[in-house]
Amino acid sequence: MASDITFHYFHGRGIGEPIRLLLTVGEIAFTDRRYSVDEFANMAAFKAQLPFGQMPALEVDGVFLGQTDSIARLAARLTGLYPSDPIEAARSDMIVVHQAEIQSALAKMSFEGVPGTPGMKMVPQEERQKRIAAWLETTLPGALRRLEKLSQEGCMVGSQLSWADICVFNRLNQLLDIDADVLHADFPKLQAVHDRVDALPQVQAWIRAHQDDYPRFRAGGENRSR
Fold this sequence. Notes:
The structure is a single chain. The protein is 54% helix and 10% strand. By secondary structure, it is an alpha+beta fold.
């Protein structure tokens, strides 16, 4: 078992939050090192240590690892949240990739340039809201229906909590921040997955400790998913 783990990423949830949640749920001690965009832009020596010069990055006993899905998969393995059955593992992989595509679509509608990099600009609010509203109506329902169809009873794969549940929970939180009714009655199995992860004591404690990252928690207390 790794003895010294540091997660390097920007402030806020972003694409790094599932990794933080996986380590937290698995009760793996780690240092959560957060950077501003300007701070990271001026850290040439640090960037040179990163496999691809970018974050998120996971430092394990002095070894730096990159690429979000690869880091998340390692975190899942370290915490016992990666399925041991090859078919269930593959199903979990495809679900994690699918939910990441939802995040990527939102990022492209919201930013000009790569989020977290110098020169990145936020799309003007009115235009951003127009793009996202249209996407919520036309594209997102199909993406959620695919996840709903893949869902089991209270989890995404098999009968045990896995990294797919944590990643889907995080993505649903992002969508619920945009539209509190995004799940409504059409997605009961996704709602059950969200609620199961949301109720984990480790997740509850993490959100309480990072309320600035979870606006619905700040605004609505414990009843965040409705």
